[in-house]
Design a protein that fits this description.
The protein has about 325 residues and is an alpha/beta fold. Helix content is about 40%, strand content about 15%. The chain has 14 helices and 12 strands. It has helices at about 10-15, 20-25, 40-45, 65-70, 90-95, 105-120, 125-130, 155-170, 190-200, 220, 240-250, 270-275, 290-305, 320-334; strands at about 5, 30, 55, 75, 95-100, 150-155, 170-175, 185-190, 200-205, 230, 255-260, 280. Helix 10 (about 220) links the parallel strand 9 (about 200-205) and strand 10 (about 230).
C-alpha cells in the first residue's frame, strides 16, 4: 500500500483539503501533520519518513534537505501552481518527481483584483472603518471604473481574463507584455512607459522571475500620475516596497491595494499594511471554494495516476522518475 504524507496543519486540512483527504484515505495509508501548526523543514522530514508521496502545502518550503533525507520519497506534490519555493534541481538530482496543481485560481485572483479596484475607487474599506467608529467619513468623490483607464502589466492567464472583465465594464484597457500579443477586442497593447503614464489603475500581473524582480521601482513609479491607484494581487517580488511606500507617503501615487507582498507566505509586509488608507488583504487571491477544491483534487488525481502505473499529470521534471519506477515495481509485487 502506498504511504502518503499531508503537511497541511489541521485548519488548512479542514478548509482546503477535506474532501481530497477523504479520497486519499481510500487510495493508501495517509499520514497527517502531527502538529497543530505549519511544519518546519526538519519537522516535515521527521514526520514523512517512510512515505513515498508527500503532498506539501505552500506553508512549508520544498527545500533541498527534504529530497536529500527522505529515502523513500518518489513524488513531491504541491497542490498549488506556484513551485518557486521548491528546489526542483535537488529533487531531480535524487530522482524524485515534482508535480503541481491545475491553474484553477485564475478567475478567483482576477475577481479579487476587480474587487480591490472597486474598493479603492469608492473608498469602501476606508469609509467602513470610519463609520464603524461612529465617525462620518469625508464626502470624497469616488471614481467610476467605466471610462477610466486600467493598465495591466503582463498578459498571461490572469491578465487576459481580467482584461475581458474590465472591457465589459467600459474601461479603457492598456496591456504591456513583451512576450505575448494581446489580440483581445477592446485591449490596447502599449509600451510599459505609456501604460504607467496613462493608467488610472496600475495592476501588475507579470510572472515573478529574475527579470521582473522589482519591476515596480522608484524609476517606474516616477512615471505614474499622482492620482493613479495601484493594485497588486500577483507577487510581492514584482514590487520594491520601499519605493512604493515612499511614493505613497509623498503623494506621488494616490491609493494602494495589495493582496501580496514580501511578508510571510507572500502576504503584504507589515510596514505597507499599516499605512493609513492602504487596503491590504492577507493573500486571499485563491481563497474560493471552487479553486481550493480543484487544486486539492489535483493531488488525488496524481496519486490515482501513480497507482495506475502512469506518470502523474503536471509533473515538472518527468525524466526524474527513477524512484517512481521502483515504487511501481513494489506496488505490483504487493
Amino acid at each position: 500500500m502506498i504511504k502518503i504524507f499531508l503537511s497541511h496543519n489541521p485548519e488548512d486540512l479542514s478548509v482546503y483539503f477535506k474532501k481530497a483527504h477523504a479520497a486519499l484515505t481510500g487510495l493508501g495509508q495517509v499520514v497527517l501533520n502531527p502538529r497543530a501548526r505549519d511544519l518546519t523543514t526538519e519537522e516535515l522530514i521527521e514526520a514523512a519518513r517512510g512515505c513515498e508521496v508527500v503532498v506539501c502545502h505552500r506553508s512549508t518550503h520544498g527545500k533541498r534537505q527534504i529530497f536529500e533525507q527522505l529515502a523513500d520519497l518518489a513524488v513531491f506534490i504541491r497542490p498549488q501552481v506556484d513551485i518557486s519555493d521548491v528546489d526542483v534541481e535537488a529533487a531531480s538530482a535524487h530522482d524524485i518527481l515534482v508535480a503541481n496543481s491545475v491553474p484553477a485560481f485564475i478567475p478567483a485572483t482576477a475577481e479579487l483584483a476587480l474587487a480591490l479596484m472597486l474598493d479603492l475607487a469608492r473608498d469602501v474599506t476606508v469609509s467602513t472603518l470610519e463609520f464603524k467608529k461612529g465617525r462620518m467619513p469625508p464626502s470624497t468623490m469616488g471614481r467610476q471604473l467605466s471610462g477610466s483607464t486600467a493598465g495591466i502589466i503582463g498578459y498571461g492567464a490572469i491578465g487576459s481574463y481580467l482584461a475581458g472583465k474590465l472591457v465589459a465594464l467600459g474601461m479603457r484597457v492598456l496591456v504591456s507584455d513583451p512576450y505575448v500579443t494581446a489580440d483581445q477586442e477592446g485591449v490596447e497593447q502599449v509600451a510599459l512607459e505609456k501604460l504607467l503614464a496613462e493608467s488610472d489603475f496600475v495592476v501588475p500581473l507579470a510572472v515573478a522571475n529574475a527579470e521582473t524582480e522589482n519591476l515596480i521601482n522608484a524609476d517606474t513609479l516616477a512615471l505614474v500620475k499622482p492620482e493613479a491607484y495601484f493594485v497588486n494581487v500577483s507577487r510581492g517580488n514584482l514590487v520594491d516596497e520601499q519605493a512604493l511606500e515612499a511614493a505613497y507617503r509623498e503623494k506621488r501615487i494616490a491609493k494602494i491595494a495589495m493582496d501580496v507582498g514580501r511578508g510571510p507566505d507572500q502576504r503584504p509586509s507589515s510596514h505597507m499594511a499599516e499605512l493609513d488608507g492602504v487596503v491590504a488583504t492577507p493573500h486571499l487571491g485563491g481563497l474560493t471554494v471552487q479553486n481550493a477544491e480543484a487544486q486539492a483534487w489535483s493531488a488525488v488525481e496524481q496519486v490515482e495516476a501513480i497507482l495506475a502505473g502512469k506518470m502523474p499529470p503536471r509533473t515538472i521534471n518527468p525524466s526524474s522518475n527513477g524512484r517512481l519506477k521502483k515504487l511501481w515495481t513494489t506496488l505490483r509485487a504487493d
